[in-house]
Amino acid sequence: MEPPQSGGSERDKPNSSSSSPTPVVANFWKDFDLEKEKAVLDEQGLRIAENQENSQKNRRKLAESTRDFKKASAEEKLSLFNSLLKGYQEEVDNITKRAKFGENAFLNIYQKLYEAPDPYPALASIAEQDLKLSELESENRKMKVELEEFRTEATHLKNQQATIRRLEERNRQLELQMEDKVKETVEMKQRSLAEENQKTLEVLKEREESLQDQLRQAKESISTMHKLHELAQSQLFELRAQSDEDRAAKQSELNLLMDEVERAQTRLHSLEREKGHLRSQLQTANEDAGNKKSLEGGSSSPCSFLCMDSRSWEDSHYGQLRKRRICIVDWCCMCKHSGESPNHLLLQCETAQSLWSMVFCLFGVIWVMPGSVVEVWLVGWGRSVNPDMRTLGCCSFILCGFYGVRGIYEFLKGRRGQFGAKVGLCALF
Question: Cα-flanking dihedrals φ and ψ of residue 111, to 5°?
Answer without folding.
Answer: -65, -35
